[in-house]
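Lesson 9: reading folded outputs for more than one chain in a single document. The general rule is that every protein is listed as its sequence immediately followed by its structure tokens, and records are never interleaved. Here is the first one.
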Amino acid sequence: MENKEALDTLHDIKELMEKSTKFMSISGISAILVGIYACIGTGLAYFILNKQDSFDTLFNIPLLNINTTYQLASICLIALGVLALSLLTAFTMSYQKAKKGYRNIFKDKSVHRLLWNFFLPLLTGGILCFSLIWQQYYGLTSSIMLIFYGLSLVNCSKYTYSDIRYLGYAEILLGLVDSFAITHALLFWVTGFGLLHIAAGIYFYYKVEHKQHLARP
């Protein structure tokens, strides 16, 4: 009996330490929504490329061959739109979840550490992609996006749920494979930013959030 009480006390201490050093208000539903946004964005890009008849004749997969200013502007606008909507959704849902736990994310140092470690690799990769697009080297942009996004997830996993690093590993691996098949960027993009996000969001919701709801009195 005493051993059980000691273990419960240690568990409570561990939870308090995690709450003080980690941001635990990430929402699985937001990850699912981000994945859906990415799938919709890929669908729009597919429609644009479909009008240009740019397909792999063997697998009937749209190729990311950007030959016109219209294509370039459209793809960039879609990517920026998906990014903006994803960040807004993640912030809004995390803010609401943190508010329920009486945490002020604007003053929470764990949030500051999380954001710094997340955005540093992401901005680095974004600037590199912009440089390549500026010089009209489009081939590796999607793989760079996936790799640096994966690095961002691994880098910030120390300050939130550690399982996020596995999504990061998957994104990095997918980006590396994508670098060897640059004409099929749309397929890798929708897999990495769309399907993997949806799968990770569902896993996170049922493993963490659903159990938290059931544990509440």
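And here is the second record, again sequence then tokens.
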Amino acid sequence: MSSRTGDTDETGAADAAGGTDETGDPQRDEEAVARFVERFAADMTEAGMQRTASRVFAALLASDDASMTSAELSEQLGISPAAVSGAIRYLVQVSMVGRERDPGSRRDRYRLHNQLWYATFAQRDTVLSRWEHTLRQGVDSLGRDTPAGARVAETVAFFEFLQKELVTLLDRWREHQATLRHDEG
């Protein structure tokens, strides 16, 4: 493999240095970006996310300003505006994307939330609490000494453990993020 700017490795991924244009702005290999979007979308789909929502999310993630219109998403992904609308509806519902309008425009822009991954996992804390409450009621309903009750009780214990560890992990991330910002600045 050569080390020239814009080369790809054996997986087809472009090297990190995409070069610059005549103004000195970084260039992007749009084919490599499209491959990344489809690869990451496939990973998210395999993990259970809707396919079109995965593709829209990955396209927004790969967008320099993390923001695109329905028309831009439709064109980039080769899907209908209706498909974009359905995907956006899902992504808004799970708090991964927000809607906004440019001043003076009637066209919606869809934007990834700041601190997207932190917020996504922090919201899981609320979901886990709700599940724990319902599962505790299930243990009482099923009877702690029944096989089903014991299985649900173990699930409650797992979610309690997960929730405690998630809070600790998110706190550690904030500390780590602060060191990253300090190192950059």
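What the second record shows: The first strand starts at residue 67 and ends at 69.
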